[in-house]
Every structure is written in C-alpha cells, then in structure tokens.
Amino acid sequence: MQANPFIDPLGPLYGKREENTLVIGLPVAPRHCNPGGTCHGGMLMTLADMLLILNANAQSGIHQYMVTINLTCDFVGPAFQGNWVEGRATMLRASKNMVFVNGIISTDDNVVARVNGIFKPTGDSNPAYSLEHLLGD
C-alpha cells in the first residue's frame, strides 16, 4: 500500500485484492495493545477507517480523495497480541456526494468488530485512488 505519514508508524498494514475489494490486515503487535493485552480500540478504529475509505474508492469507481463523515464501530470480541486481524468491506451505496460502506474486522473465524462509514468524495478524479494504484498493480 502507498505511504501514509499517519498510518506508517502504526503499521505496516497489508492489503490484497479479492475481486473488486481490498482486504486490509495487520499482525497485532505489542504497540497495538492496551494494558489488558488486546488490540486497542483506537487501533481497530484506525484499521476500520482505512478499510472502509479505501473500499469506498475501490468499489465505487469514483477515484477521488474522500473524507470521513461518519465512522461507527461495534466491538464484538477481542484480538490478542500475535493475532492476524483483517477486514473486509462492502460498498452499500454511492451517490455524487456520499459513499456508504460497511465491514467486518476479524481474526481467523472470530469477529472482532462490525464497522460502518460514510465518506465524501472531494476534488477531481485521480487514478491514484484506484484499486490498482493502491495495491501497486
């Protein structure tokens, strides 16, 4: 995935294509954990934001920079240090002004979080926001 000055110190985040979607994941390291030994909710929200916004671009075909309007998360279960955590997302609807996306973050077969987001496309269309460019295809 391309460089991001906020995400780079938290990651690395890994991405792979599954048809027209982008699956994003990371190995839970000690720096991602709270004192209870589980992945911090703030880290899961950061992963959720990246997962949803990148899939908003990949699945909508809009290919514009998008800002987060709303991001919600239901924390369902823990992710422990050493777990591989990954998210999958589905675009629900895209209009000229908003893109609605939901997703699931999980470890193996255990759901960690259910996430929803609303994103606003801004600026001109840019191929840098295409799935191919995001993955370096």
Task: List strands and helices in order, with pairings.
Layout: E1 14-18, E2 21-27, H1 41-60, E3 65-75, E4 84-94, E5 99-107, E6 110-122, H2 131-135
Antiparallel strand pairs: 1-2, 2-4, 3-6, 4-5, 5-6
In short:
With 137 residues, the protein is of the alpha+beta class. It has two helices and six strands. The termini are close together.
Please give a handful of descriptors for the protein shown.
single chain, 137 residues, alpha+beta, Thiol Ester Dehydrase, Chain A, six-stranded antiparallel beta sheet, 2 helices, 41% strand
Structure description:
The chain has about 140 residues and is of the alpha+beta class. The protein has a single domain, classed as Hotdog Thioesterase (Thiol Ester Dehydrase, Chain A), CATH 3.10.129.10. It is built from 2 helices and 6 strands. It has helices at about 40-60, 130-135; strands spanning about 15-20, 20-25, 65-75, 85-95, 100-105, 110-120. The chain has a 6-stranded antiparallel sheet, covered by helices on one side. Strand 5 (about 100-105) and strand 6 form a beta hairpin. The longest helix has 20 residues, at about 40-60. The protein is globular and about 45 Å long. It starts with 13 loop residues before the first strand and ends with a helix.
